[in-house]
Amino acid sequence: MIYFVMTNRLYDGDRANDIDINPADPKAYHGGDLQGLIDKLDYIKGLGATAIWKAARP
């Protein structure tokens, strides 16, 4: 199974790089980052995913 992820919306793994985020606004950045994706790899694997398809950064 392929897990498609929009990194910006998954998980904020490094709050030091948060610039102009607003999780309440569906059109705004939510703070997710590459570190957040790394932090959630076990979770994604637990879902049964064997590959990750990362959306291009907007």
Automatic annotation (TrEMBL):
<feature type="domain" description="Glycosyl hydrolase family 13 catalytic">
    <location>
        <begin position="4"/>
        <end position="53"/>
    </location>
</feature>
<dbReference type="Pfam" id="PF00128">
    <property type="entry name" value="Alpha-amylase"/>
</dbReference>
<dbReference type="InterPro" id="IPR006047">
    <property type="entry name" value="GH13_cat_dom"/>
</dbReference>
<dbReference type="GO" id="GO:0046872">
    <property type="term" value="F:metal ion binding"/>
</dbReference>
<dbReference type="InterPro" id="IPR017853">
    <property type="entry name" value="GH"/>
</dbReference>
<dbReference type="GO" id="GO:0005975">
    <property type="term" value="P:carbohydrate metabolic process"/>
</dbReference>
<keyword id="KW-0479">Metal-binding</keyword>
<keyword id="KW-0732">Signal</keyword>
<protein>
    <recommendedName>
        <fullName>Glycosyl hydrolase family 13 catalytic domain-containing protein</fullName>
    </recommendedName>
</protein>
